[in-house]
Specification:
about 425 residues, alpha+beta, nine-stranded mixed β-sheet, 14 helices, 17 strands, RNA-binding
Length: about 425
RNA sequence: GCGGCUAUGGUGUAACGGUUAACACUGGAGCUUGUGGAGCUCUCGAUCAGGGUUCGAUUCCCUGUAGCCGCCCCA
């Protein structure tokens, strides 16, 4: 036997391989979110996955865990500490701050970066994922908050979701602060309250009520009927825009410290999938890391893995169709050059064509085309070369039609 | 960082502690020199690693490793 130790074919822990079917979905994800973002007048930017580690360290003690335990951080050959970005917001804040005097506001930017986090993976949470980030800078208007939420809404609709499939839940950091002030809670207790609210959906109602009483907050203060003024304003604008599945939810608080105003998350209305599909909110102080001239912002982010899970559950995943439209099979290896010439002619008309070199029998060549889910087949044989007439087979229906050379290009380029 | 579950060909599954580890898909060869995607025949290919219990371990126990799922945290 002489068994040799081989390398594993698994990808690195927590990251994915994108096989062509996966890449096809990914391309669909990218093109859909890009189209929607651009439709709202947002411009695409991009940045390196490498950032100086200080960018994440400077955000305060609360983020120690994120920086020390949940990032890929290493020292480069020049002794610099480098981090694979775990989120995009500090990067975009850095870029905006760098050109804060010249960019012009309101500024609308979006990006589709990959992000890394060093943590144990679980369903819907991997060590690398891709995320749409949409941000609007330089406006304090409630209309800006509403616009960002409506972009999020439009993205989900563009993927085929109905308003009944998801709900937009809005909360408010101002509201949270007002409770803290009213009850005179210290900073620690305020944080505890925020954490409890964040976890509310995941814990039994009785536990939540007990814990909330323990820190001295009456349950009535968190009633969904007591809509804070900022949330109410945004909800009114959204309604005017024709968005009817948004509501106030006092337990929407978002985990990050940098949020300052209205925050929101979208949820699948199917209670079995209670993970947030996307989330965001207003953050008014982020660029202050880079300058004393702060730039206000509001934005949201949506991951490719969570949206894929959502679309799968809802039956909204598009069927896989390869980009290759035509497969040319040959009856005899000697005809390979003829087949390649025919393919070349079709390519000049922007038809995607793959050619078989005839190393297997014709039947097996067709199997290959079918296996690759290529929709059309042309067989090249000496008869066809002589007559100039080719049989085009639709591999989905099994139907065949005869076309002369010139008509082939016309036929395929209309697909 | 903490906890639960799982580990058999490339994939998905099967095997009361007892012959040669079974079945399906996939791959390869053929039936079959140009209408074939099917079918049939043949074939390649596996018990995660180490230790223990036992006459005998894929099966039971321990350790390790890996994966999945939760928790923590949340981008």
């Amino acid at each position: 036997m002489g068994k040799k130790e081989h390398l594993s074919t698994d990808p690195y822990k927590g990251v994915r391989d994108f096989f062509p079917e996966d890449q096809a979905f990914f391309n669909y994800f990218i093109s859909t979110v890009r189209e929607v973002s651009e439709r709202f007048g947002y411009l695409e930017y991009h940045a390196s996955v490498l950032e100086p580690a200080e960018l994440y360290k400077s955000k305060g003690a609360e983020n120690e865990e994120l920086v020390h335990d949940q990032t890929y951080t290493f020292v480069d050959r020049g002794g610099r500490e480098v981090t694979l970005r775990p989120e995009m917001t500090p990067t975009v804040a850095r870029m905006v701050a760098a050109r804060r005097r010249e960019v012009g506001y309101p500024l609308r930017w979006f990006s589709i970066p990959n992000l890394f986090r060093y943590e144990r993976s679980q369903r819907g949470r991997l060590r690398e994922h891709w995320q749409l980030n949409v941000d609007l800078f330089g406006s304090n208007s409630r209309n800006a908050d509403a616009e960002i939420i409506s972009v999020a809404h439009a993205v989900l609709v563009a993927f085929g979701a109905q308003e009944s499939d998801f709900v937009l839940k809005l909360g408010s950091r101002n509201f949270l602060d007002s409770i803290t002030r009213e009850l005179n809670l210290d900073e620690d207790t305020g944080k505890k309250l925020r954490g409890l609210l964040d976890r509310r959906a995941k814990m039994p109602a009785a536990d939540f009520e007990r814990d909330i009483k323990d820190i001295g907050v009456a349950l009535e203060m968190l009633s969904p009927d007591k809509i804070p003024a900022d949330v109410a304003e945004v909800l009114t604008i959204l309604k005017d825009l024709g968005i009817n599945n948004a509501e106030f939810d006092p337990s929407i608080v978002r985990g990050f410290d940098y949020y300052t105003g209205v925050v929101f998350e979208a949820f699948d209305t199917n209670p079995e999938n209670n993970r947030a599909l996307l989330g965001g909110g207003r953050y008014d102080n982020l660029t202050s890391l880079f300058s004393d001239e702060p730039v206000v912002g509001v934005g949201f982010a949506m991951g490719d893995v969570t949206i894929r899970d959502f679309l799968e559950v809802r039956g909204l995943l598009p069927e896989y169709i390869p980009t290759t439209k035509v497969y040319v099979a040959i009856a005899d290896q000697a005809l390979a050059s003829e087949a390649m010439k025919l393919a070349g002619m079709l390519r000049e008309h922007n038809v995607s064509v793959a050619v078989d070199f005839g190393e297997k029998k014709l039947g097996d060549q067709i199997k290959t085309a079918a296996k690759h889910k290529i929709p059309y087949l042309i067989v090249v044989g000496s008869d066809e070369i002589a007559s100039g007439e080719f049989r085009v087979k639709d591999l989905n229906s099994g139907e065949e039609k005869k076309l002369v050379r010139a008509d082939l290009a016309t036929f395929f380029s209309t697909l």
